[in-house]
């Protein structure tokens, strides 16, 4: 038998000390509605179960000084078009709380190896930088021998990521100026004419996806327990929401379950994540740079999944003895005193960060001649590359490289640098085949462009 609703039982479930739960509860036995007041500027109303309450016209009690005391019971925060509605989140930390949390996390986080200190692996570093400059390239798949610094290089990007403007307290890192990357709450407030959104500046986030993650943890889910005990349909954002406008890194992506890889690649390609649970459909922006790494000895991805990665980087073991000694010595210095080691590369890191910020700002002004576009497409056609992703990614990567070098036009050298990374993983049609090293792409490139 279903338990009856009472203000006392509900109040016990709502902990005032928690920022993730409502702080006020207003319920009236003589009212046709029970009204919950949340710390965020949204209110949810749902019909009472008691027949006596339904017959009364007495308005519900609203605590003085709360937002519910000024807003009539309504379906604010809900969208019932076509049987779908967007569930608003109840957590809304203030700007001071968010800054304090970020500061504390920065002080306690593990020291990250500087990107500028990484020796060799130029192909991998270039692919990562181009994706940071233009996230629409579609991410990068890094395959190479174990112990070659794949994970270290990816995580070292954290220091180079530029700052972005985000709405305070929004779990989707919403952009206050771009509706395409706004969460459902922020989008609704903008549509209602709210111009007082609290905005702060934050670093682009990097989210690590563990191999044991479930689909609910990745995509998000509806909190059914809260719906049954508190009458609140609350959406719990997943890792895709956290990675919006950031980077999602999957180490050993070739060992991840295929259905999770499908979810990640679909969201990365469309820029949206849709969750279907218990008759509820929720969509939120999920625009992120997908970076995967793996060891080819443990298996390759299916060709259909490889094609969804914008670029492919191959990492090999350094064979030069002098270079290997330098890498070992640099790593020993970092392990001995990480703070001093990071400070020794501070100027180089700052210079590279400014170069990335400048390239992101000037990317829109970079032009590529029509003749070069035609030759790129001719290379893709003669290599029998399926679809048009190869053409699109090569154009984007060449423009990003020109912006990184401070130019406003793409040259043949730019295309020659990026086209092997954009096409070689698209030549693999049979799952039993190995990925071409790029020789076929380079030969065809010189044949067409000569």
Automatic annotation (TrEMBL):
The subcellular localization recorded is:
Plastid, Chloroplast
Which Gene Ontology terms of cellular component type are present?
chloroplast stroma; magnesium chelatase complex
Keyword match tRNA processing: no
**Known SUPFAM superfamilies for this protein?**
P-loop containing nucleoside triphosphate hydrolases
Key words of the record: ATP-binding, Chlorophyll biosynthesis, Chloroplast, Ligase, Nucleotide-binding, Photosynthesis, Plastid
* Ways its activity is controlled: Redox regulation; active in reducing conditions, inactive in oxidizing conditions.
**Domain AAA+ ATPase intervals:** 136-319
> What highest taxon heads this organism's lineage?
Eukaryota
Task: Cite the SMART domains for this sequence.
Answer: AAA
Q: Report the top EC class in one word.
A: ligase
EC numbers on record: 6.6.1.1
Pathway in which this enzyme or protein is active: Porphyrin-containing compound metabolism; chlorophyll biosynthesis
Protein family:
Belongs to the Mg-chelatase subunits D/I family.
Quaternary context: The magnesium chelatase complex is a heterotrimer consisting of subunits CHLI, CHLD, AND CHLH.
What name does this protein carry? Answer: Mg-protoporphyrin IX chelatase
Task: Please tell me the species this chain comes from.
Answer: Zea mays (Maize)
């Amino acid at each position: 038998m279903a338990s009856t609703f009472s203000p006392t039982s509900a109040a016990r479930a709502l902990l005032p000390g928690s920022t993730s739960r409502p702080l006020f509860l207003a319920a009236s036995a003589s009212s046709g509605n029970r009204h919950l007041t949340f710390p965020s500027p949204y209110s949810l109303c749902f019909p009472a179960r008691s027949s006596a309450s339904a017959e009364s016209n007495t308005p519900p009690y609203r605590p003085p000084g709360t937002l519910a005391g000024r807003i009539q019971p309504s379906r604010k925060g809900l969208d019932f078009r076509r049987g779908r509605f967007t569930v608003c989140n109840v957590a809304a930390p203030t700007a001071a709380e968010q800054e304090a949390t970020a500061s504390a996390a920065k002080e306690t986080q593990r020291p990250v190896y500087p990107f500028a200190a990484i020796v060799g692996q130029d192909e991998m570093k270039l692919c990562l930088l181009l994706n940071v400059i233009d996230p629409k390239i579609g991410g990068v798949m890094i395959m190479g021998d174990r112990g070659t610094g794949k994970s270290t290089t990816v995580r070292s990007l954290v220091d180079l990521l530029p700052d972005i403007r985000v709405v305070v307290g929004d779990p989707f890192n919403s952009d206050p100026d771009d509706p395409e990357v706004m969460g459902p709450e922020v989008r609704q407030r903008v549509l209602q004419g709210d111009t007082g959104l609290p905005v702060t500046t934050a670093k682009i986030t990097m989210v690590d996806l563990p191999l044991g993650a479930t689909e609910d943890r990745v995509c998000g889910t509806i909190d059914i327990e809260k719906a049954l005990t508190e009458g609140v349909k609350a959406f719990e954002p997943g890792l895709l929401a956290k990675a919006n406008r950031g980077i999602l890194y999957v180490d050993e992506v070739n060992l991840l379950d295929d259905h999770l890889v499908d979810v990640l690649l679909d969201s990365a390609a469309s820029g949206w994540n849709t969750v279907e649970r218990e008759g509820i459909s929720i969509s939120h922006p999920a625009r992120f740079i997908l970076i995967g790494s793996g060891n080819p000895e443990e298996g390759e991805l299916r060709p259909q999944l490889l094609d969804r990665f914008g670029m492919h980087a191959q990492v090999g073991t350094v064979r030069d003895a002098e270079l290997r000694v330098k890498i070992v010595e640099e790593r020993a210095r970092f392990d001995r005193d990480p703070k001093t080691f990071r400070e020794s590369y501070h100027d180089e890191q700052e210079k590279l960060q400014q170069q990335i910020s400048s390239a992101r700002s000037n990317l829109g002004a970079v032009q590529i001649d029509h003749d070069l576009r035609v030759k790129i497409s001719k290379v893709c056609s003669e290599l029998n590359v399926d679809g048009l992703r190869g053409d699109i990614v090569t154009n984007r990567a060449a423009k990003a490289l020109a912006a990184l070098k401070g130019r406003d036009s793409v040259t043949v050298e730019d295309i020659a640098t990026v086209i092997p990374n954009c096409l070689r993983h698209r030549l693999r049609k049979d799952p039993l085949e190995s990925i071409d090293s790029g020789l076929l792409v380079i030969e065809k490139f010189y044949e067409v462009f000569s």
